[in-house]
Write a structure and sequence with these properties.
It is built from 3 helices and 8 strands, in the order E-E-H-E-H-E-E-H-E-E-E. It has about 150 residues and is α+β, with helices and mostly antiparallel strands. A 3-stranded antiparallel sheet has the order 2-1-3, covered by helices on one side. The protein has a 3-stranded mixed sheet with strand order 4-8-7. It starts with a strand and ends with a strand.
Length: about 150
Amino acid sequence: MEVILNESLENLGKAGDIVNVANGYARNYLLPKGIAILADKKNLAKIEKQREAILKRAAKMKEEFEALASQLAGLDIEIPVKVGEEEKLYGSVTNLDIAKAIEEKGYEIDRKKIVLEEPIKALGEYEIPVKLSPDVTGTVKIKVVAAE
């Protein structure tokens, strides 16, 4: 089924692109959420008129994400954790913990956007990538310290 994307999706395409997807994916996810519209003659003519507005909106969103990425890069976040003997952590620091720490600084980031290959299990400083959009990735510096 051919659809026209209203929003950019990482593995599918950018806003305004015409893509071919599985029928169920379009019917059950893309169309109901407004992420895409059906690519028929009526919508194709309509999208040609709206393509410029969609591209402007996408450029504005990219600018906002880039600004947020630069703000996140300037943050110094400390995450206190309980440690045992030889400074081994009880548990680990996950993307949920990092999202909560970022939220305490006044920025709301979905935990799914925090790219953590595996949970952090040691004290130290880390640079964690945050994928804000398909083409904008920021980094946030965190310091995992022993709780007092």
